[in-house]
Amino acid sequence: MNEMKKTEHFARTSDGTKIRYLIWSAGTATKKLVLVHSLAMTADFWDATAKAIGPDVDVLAIDCRGHGLSDKPQGPYSVELFASDLASVLDNAGWDTAIIGGASMGGCVAITFANMYAERTVGLGLIDTTAWYGETSIEDWEERGQKAITTGMNAMTGFQKTRWFSDNFRAENKNIVEHAVEVFVANDPNAYLETCRMLGRCNQSNALKDISVPCEIVVGEEDYATPVAMAESMHQAIVGSNLTVIPKARHLTPLEVPKTIARILLEIDIG
């Protein structure tokens, strides 16, 4: 079996923003999978999942605008802009089509990409995510983003850890938890605020009915950031989609149960 190698690349978007992306490839793949990380994470969020997916699928993951080693221009940000950034990255990588997957924020971007670039989307993986955060989303996300400005990223980590990971996982995998915290606190507060505002405005509910590609929806049983009810709502709206609820897992399932996420993503049947 050929070994998968991880390589780092950079692309420029239509407005000149530099976007970092990673590719995991053994050079023998027959499928291509794109993954978009959750809020305040980076492309490396997907490392364990990509390795578990194995050599039959090339995996590409980006640092979204405002995150990681990508540029952090002033806002406003939008899921449409993030989807356009992703299209620029695929152009740079020479990928015409791919399965598009995303976790939490990344799922919002994946839905938007599938709507804007249907001809480039051959499958969809929606993980711990939603098409809309609800009636009070604008106010809720503004409040959360402002906390990063007024208190700093460090002050938010206690809340984030319990939101991200189940109690047992936090107790037994402190290295993974603390690495996620390190990535979180390294975020630029202003870029974080603009991304929170983006999520507050995001409403892709009407786009769900137009999704016709194979779609796997995944959510942790204990996820209270994007609860099971949100996943069920997407499942009902996307004809032919499959829904998996992962027992005892919380919000960042690609970190908590990467092998399970990899297995489900491999089940996306694109023929």
Q: How would you describe what is shown here?
A:
The protein is of the alpha/beta class and 271 residues long. The chain has a single domain, classed as Rossmann fold (3-Layer(aba) Sandwich). It is 41% helix and 19% strand. The chain is built from eleven helices and eight strands. It has helices at 47-53, 79-93, 105-116, 137-150, 157-164, 167-172, 174-185, 189-201, 228-237, 253-256, 258-266; strands at 5-12, 18-25, 31-36, 57-62, 98-103, 121-127, 215-220, 242-246. It has an eight-stranded mixed sheet, sandwiched between helices. α1 crosses α11, α2 crosses α3 and α4 runs antiparallel to α8 (189-201). The longest helix has 15 residues, at 79-93.
Give the SSE map.
Layout: E1 5-12, E2 18-25, E3 31-36, H1 47-53, E4 57-62, H2 79-93, E5 98-103, H3 105-116, E6 121-127, H4 137-150, H5 157-164, H6 167-172, H7 174-185, H8 189-201, E7 215-220, H9 228-237, E8 242-246, H10 253-256, H11 258-266
Parallel strand pairs: 3-4, 3-5, 5-6, 6-7, 7-8
Antiparallel strand pairs: 1-2, 2-4
Helix pairs in contact: 1-11, 2-3, 4-8
> On the 0-100 scale, what is the average pLDDT?
98
Domains (count): 1
The CATH topology corresponds to Rossmann fold
List the helices and strands in order.
EEEHEHEHEHHHHHEHEHH
Strand arrangement within the widest β-sheet reads 1-2-4-3-5-6-7-8
**Percent helix range:** 40-55%
Largest sheet: 8 strands, mixed
Query: What share of residues are in beta strands?
Result: 15-25%
Give the tally of β-strands: 8
Number of alpha- plus pi-helical segments: 11
Based on the structure given, which CATH architecture is correct?
A: 3-Layer(aba) Sandwich
The CATH first-level class comes to Alpha Beta
Based on CA inertia axes, which overall geometry fits? globular
Question: Structural class per helix/strand content?
Answer: alpha/beta
Radius of gyration: 17 Å
Oligomer: single chain
GO molecular function, one term: hydrolase activity
Domain AB hydrolase-1: 33-263
Organism: uncultured bacterium EIL20A02
Keywords: Hydrolase
